[in-house]
UniProtKB/TrEMBL annotation:
UniProt protein name: Transporter
InterPro entries (alphabetical): FApF, OMP/PagP_B-barrel
Domain of life: Bacteria
Keyword annotations from UniProtKB, A to Z: Coiled coil, Plasmid
Keyword Coiled coil: yes
Amino acid sequence: MFGQIGSGQIGLGKARLGLAAMLGGTMLTHPAHAQQSDAAAIRAELDRAMAMIAQQQEQLDRQRGEIAEMRRRLDTAYASAAVATDAPAVSADRDGGSGVSPAADAPVPLVRVGQAPEDEDQPIEIAVLDNTSSVVTPRGRLIAEAQLDYTRADRSRAVFRGVRLAEVVLIGVFDINESRQDVLTGSIGMRYGVADRLEIGARLPLVYRSDSSIIAPVPGSTNNDGARTIENSVNGFGLGDLEVTARYQLIDGRNGAPYVIANLQGVFPTGSSPFAVSRDELGRAEEVATGAGFYSISPSLTAILPSDPVVLFGTLGYNVNVARSIDTVIPPVRVSRIDPGDAITASAGIGISFNQRTTVNLGYAHNWAFGTRTTTALLDPTPAWPDTRDIVSRDLQLGRLLFGVTYRISDRTSLNWAVEVGATEDSPDLRTILRVPFAF
């Protein structure tokens, strides 16, 4: 193609030289009086030369167009090859953003190239867990959060004390124990970005709690004719336990890496203790406790990996409960010391983004709570139990299935709703949480 262009240019130059030589030779050969008679022949020769030049110029223009098209195609091929070779793995901007994908004829991993203006400084949030599952609050920003939490736990247990002669023949005392607990908690929390990677926060709850229980001996299962159904119901309202948190972002989530946040939570027993409430002569509580009655410290690590259009998240932690000495009577024993068991906590899940405002989250959380050690002594010692005795309860396995929805109302506020359903016998049956954060 390039050779054809060169030949055309040479031919055009020869034509021009030939025309000039012909004109010069004609003028020198013929005298002045003969030029007029040959004017028609010269004009005809000039027209033929100009036609030849125009034809060659048209051919050159056509070849230039073909070369330009070839260069355009070559540049496109180079660009496609560069994208397919150099495109990084999925990476995330700090606060999420929009993504673009290449053309269908050049499939490559999705590349996140920026974020929409309305997403600026908006932390990634996961509705199914607490605020330890969002990227830390930006420096200098204050977030206030209103939360409403409802928990329901039902227990039905048959207690048999006697001899079993066959699979369905029981001789002894057979009681049915039922209990129900409803807890409604409203709280206000604050989070503040102290530095680019550090935030601190606090939450103070108000708790309404209603407990009821029924102990019903099966008729004929005991020789005590005076045995009767015992019902107990109590409810109350008060301040809950204060929570204080600190969170530090270890990894910023660039170049496809996850966000990794170190969390530290402390709980202070500002609510009423279950060991300080009044009880009747049978040891039944006459008022409810709105707190746990212990100090606790909970370090944990959270990882959040955006991979448009989903977000993967997980948390692993350990809860340390501080033992305390008490002096309370729960007939027929006196309790002198309580050492609540520590707990291993873990959770994982996925958030699926439907659009810029709505995200649905699914997950699972599990707590392995070790047994509680209680030091007790009988109010009326016996030869078999003359002194104090340590009793360790069994471990608890608390598994919950998680479902949540996050809806962004504006750049500064969102609506988070989550539901937890108990997956193990020890877990509460249902817990639902509504959170509304406001950024300032």
